[in-house]
Amino acid sequence: MSTAKTEAKRVTTHTLQEMKAAGQRIAMLTAYDYSLARLVDSAGVDVILVGDSASNVMAGHETTLPITLDQMIYHASAVVRGCERALIVVDLPFGTYQGDTKRALASAIRIMKESGAHAVKLEGGREVIGSVERILTAGIPVMGHLGLTPQSIYKFGTYVVRAREQEEADRLREDASLLEQAGCFALVLEKIPAGLAGEVAGKLQIPIIGIGAGNKVDGQVLVLHDMLGINKEFNPRFLRRYADLHEVITGAVSHYVADVRSRDFPNEHEQY
Question: Which residue(s) pair with 208 in the sheet?
Fold first, then answer.
């Protein structure tokens, strides 16, 4: 009998479309390094987002704006090496696609060639349609992002729920349709009313992934460090913590320090 390892079937943009058609929810998480990407991938997550949230959780910046294209490629390359199944999407960082379609294409090509990722994601609606269309001319899949768009935090001035008012809600509906028509394979809706998100998911043919957008969309995404309880300061209503690694890690390190200082580690069985 053969003992050859069975290859995991790679999730593709087509897979996500089939999942939406079948009513099967899509599970998406962020990852930024090889070790955690391996765990996330092996646990069955469909999409891994190498998010520009690395600026916050990996580098300690207040916003997502400081992270560079080179840094995103570094993180994405590590994630790609750790994954066998998940579709890997990489955020285009701030300043690499807004207002310059030629630069947008060049940025996306660098991510695809240098990291080996499968798609890129960018924030915005009608104002970035030109960049979306230009990137798609190279055959690079694009995921859109509407609602609360963290790269525009200084424009909004706050992280409150977006599209509560009729005018902004109408604009979001229109932008979602424009992104679908332009060729985006999926769309993230962040921190908007659940009813509006469900309406968009029902109207559009492409998968809609929510974060703080209710349960009527086609899938969900969370930041890995938030849902694992590594970060304790971030407590939005939409966040469910599935572990408390802050306590686990600090407890383990404190125990290690105590064992070293008491000369309990290493013991006779832990040396040569």
Answer: 187
CATH code of the domain in which 65 resides = 3.20.20.60
Residue 115: phi and psi, rounded to 5, are: -105, -30
50, containing H or E segment? strand 47-50
Distance from C-alpha of 235 to C-alpha of 129, rounded to nearest angstrom: 33
Claim to verify: residue 235 and residue 267 sit in the same structural domain? no
Statement to judge: residues 210 and 255 lie in one domain: no
**Looking at residues 180-198, what average pLDDT do you find?**
98
Q: What domain range includes position 29?
A: 13-241
Q: Quote the pLDDT of residue 132.
A: 98
**218 and 254 together in one domain:** no
How many contiguous H segments (helices) and E segments (strands) does the chain have? 11, 8
pLDDT band of residue 92 (cuts 50, 70, 90) is very high
Q: Look at residue 1 and tell me whether its pLDDT is greater than 50.
A: no
Shared domain for 98 and 25, answered yes or no, is yes
Q: Two tokens at 102?
A: 């030629």
- Write b or e for each residue in 128-149: b if 16 or more Cβ atoms lie within 10 A of its Cβ, otherwise e: bbebbbbbbeeebbbbbbbbbb
Residue 249 and residue 162 in one domain: no
User: Other C-beta atoms within 10 Å of 229: how many?
Assistant: 17
Q: How many domains does the chain have?
A: 2
Tell me which of 167, 180, 190, 233 is the catalytic residue.
190
Residue 140 has pLDDT above 60, yes or no: yes
Are both 71 and 172 inside the same structural domain? yes
Instruction: Report residue 41 as tokens.
Output: 């991938």
Catalytic residue status for 84: no
Whether residue 254 is contained in a domain is answered as: yes
Q: Is the pLDDT of residue 56 over 90?
A: yes
Structure tokens at 71: 């840094």
* Residue 264 included in any domain: yes
Asked if 225 and 245 touch (Cβ cutoff 8 Å), the reply is no
